[in-house]
């Protein structure tokens, strides 16, 4: 009996220990679950974002194109007379004025031709004086029947021949003097001259044939042309807008103002005016050529230099602008996040316009009273609660950044 009682006692103790272990485990599980529920019930705070209302501003749409500067006038300096080059009277690449001496051809042969022509003229005038006096005497003698009519006609013919000889000698003198003048090659216009193509001492071939010697080239610099091409669709858009009375749009007769910037500049700080649009569209490229006149008082613009031009594409209108950093991308679509009255971020797809400084024109998709997320866009998902902090509108951009291209063509 003692053994049996002892056995029952050990079983009770084991059972008691097992029950206690299960109770501890259940208690720990309950505690962990309770902590998790408390943690889940609290949750992280809503992300903080900065919001601002769209900026209202009068803007205009612009198209941007790439083009080159070209000289309004370009002249190849070639000799009109042949001879040996005596001197070069300019420095390569310098600015020249109209009439400045550029080259000198050996004058001595031409001076001799002038002297010879003048001597021939003197002889012809002497013969004319004798023939004139002989003709005047013959007029009286033929009236007195002293000489026959045939003799008088001979004297008349001699007088007319002498007159023609004098006229021919005078023309020869003028031509000789002109050839002598052509030995000095002067700048036909103001501009910048290139480098010399011929050194002194070389034979220069002149005249009007195709074998004349090219000595240098001169291009005008101020003002200067800027040529660019734009597509047929843009051309039609410009013409239709211009016909509605919007004369500030590019057209054949508008002469509107355009802005340019060089490849190392950020702003369109140079102004010009349209002066020409071609009369045909290139069949190969489907583009048409436009041209603007740009002042170049400092000579910075050089023919052949690349630049970008900004052309008006619409009349001024009231637009809504948001910071460009507020624009998100979803594949090919653009969107912004706006915070509604409940503090929830909502996604709105937008149509973008041009960039004005750091602001982007929104054509469609937002309203003037939308609170647009401009900071913290990456921390927010559509439909999520946020803590919105208001921010004032962006400052007005500088005059150089009041507009930018809506359509870019490279």
From TrEMBL:
The keyword Kinase does not apply. Its main location: other. Residues 224-312 form the Multidrug resistance protein MdtA-like beta-barrel domain. Residues 73-208 form the Multidrug resistance protein MdtA-like barrel-sandwich hybrid domain. InterPro entries: MdtA-like_b-barrel, MdtA-like_BSH, MdtA-like_HH, RND_pump_MFP, YknX-like_C. Signal peptide: none annotated. Belongs to the membrane fusion protein (MFP) (TC 8.A.1) family. This is Efflux RND transporter periplasmic adaptor subunit. It comes from Pseudolabrys taiwanensis.
